[in-house]
Specification:
The chain is 33% helix and 30% strand. The protein is built from 11 helices and 17 strands. The relative contact order is 0.13. Bound molecules: adenosine monophosphate (AMP) and magnesium ion. The site of magnesium ion has 7 residues, from β11 and α9.
């Protein structure tokens, strides 16, 4: 994985190109490729004059990870919440995390628990991200059945008591013994939400396309007036695109797939999207799901949720949230919501 990142960084030389926008001002194209949140961050920003920089956006992503989302870093709120599990104490959350958890809770309810950010015990037991990301060394092994059963019993959003006091924007939370949160399913989308809030305050930004791992934000316009084209990887050969989405304006696009993070053992692929009901990697007949939504938390959360639910239930869930989705089945079948059909073209 590290080798992959290094090759990617070496291969992409940051470029700076000049355009003229309709107002007659010169438009600069800023590009960067970095690593943050354990994934690749690619940015292309079109700016006039001084203002937004790719470094500022990278900093936002790092800050979100360090201050709020990480379950590894002591500085992060999620780490601290997890530390409180079983203490019987209540912890007051920031407004930001209160809002995030409230939306995740709704997604859990709407998916009958197939989406569950209180999946920490199962996610840690497998730690597919750790193995695939190279932080774990040695021989990957499938967890023991008994250990998995125990971990499954400790998961579930109901192990978390989240309460908003009347009129308050900050919730208080208390976690049962053994419970742990993992916001990996929404982290990349949340980063895009922060980036959008930043971009809209920077009046010199005319357009941008930023990807944080499998989640992409398109913003504003390209200087030449053409649409954004976002490639969707072929889950059966991620080095090539299955197709492309043609989009105008602001969109959030997230893909969850069994090819993104996985380990192989005895000829079986164990990927990083878990079925909370079994504790094993979700096996709903899908290889990937791409969701298009009007905010990052939703696109990212829904793509993970739809992957676990499978095509039929996933299709209904996406429509319930007014999102568009594209499902790629293990046998290669492609299915889309009607709105997605109009935006997606296969490569051939
Ligand atoms: P994504 O790549 O956005 O689909 O998110 C996958 C990550 O979300 C995993 O690495 C876990 O941290 C976490 N996760 C795995 N399964 C689930 C699930 N069923 N519900 C919520 N989070 C999950
Ligand atoms: Mg996700």
């Amino acid at each position: 994985m590290k080798r992959f990142f290094r090759r990617l960084l070496r291969g992409l030389i940051p470029a700076l190109t000049l355009f003229l926008c309709s107002c007659g001002q010169e438009v600069q194209e800023l590009q960067s490729v970095d690593i943050a949140m354990g994934t690749v961050i690619q940015q292309t920003i079109y700016v006039t004059g001084k203002g937004a920089q790719t470094e500022n956006i990278l900093h936002l992503i790092q800050q979100l990870e360090e201050e709020t989302l990480s379950w590894r870093l002591e500085t992060a709120e999620i780490f601290q919440v997890n530390q409180y599990a079983g203490s019987g104490k209540w912890l007051e959350l920031s407004e930001k995390l209160s809002r995030i958890l409230e939306q995740c809770q709704k997604l859990t309810e709407d998916t009958d628990g197939a989406f569950d950010v209180a999946l920490g015990p199962v996610a840690r037991l497998w730690d597919i991200d750790g193995w695939a990301g190279g932080q774990r060394t040695g021989m990957f092994q499938v967890p023991e059945v008994q250990a998995l059963e125990q971990a499954v019993a400790q998961c579930g959003f109901e192990r978390l008591n989240l309460q908003f006091l009347p009129g308050e924007k900050c919730a208080i939370v208390s976690l049962e013994e053994g419970a742990a949160m993992d916001l990996g399913a929404v982290g990349k989308g949340l980063a895009l939400d922060e980036i959008f809030s930043y971009l809209k305050t920077e009046t010199n930004v005319k357009g941008a396309v930023v990807s944080v791992g499998g989640s992409v934000l398109t913003y504003g316009e390209k200087p030449d007036g053409t649409a954004w084209r976002v490639g969707i990887a072929n889950p059966h050969d991620p080095s090539v695109n299955l197709g492309v989405l043609t989009l105008t304006g602001q969109w959030y696009i997230s893909t969850s797939g069994d090819y993104e993070r996985y380990m192989e053992f005895d000829g079986v692929r164990y990927h990083h999207i878990m079925d909370p009901a079994t504790g094993y990697p979700a096996d709903s007949g899908l290889s990937s799901v791409t969701v298009l939504a009007d905010n990052g938390l939703l696109s990212d959360g829904l793509s993970t949720a739809c992957f676990v639910l499978g095509r039929e239930k996933g299709m209904l869930l996406a429509q319930q949230y007014g999102a568009e989705a594209l499902f790629v089945e293990k046998d290669g079948g492609i299915f889309t919501t009607p709105g997605m059909d109009a935006l997606f073209q296969t490569m051939d």
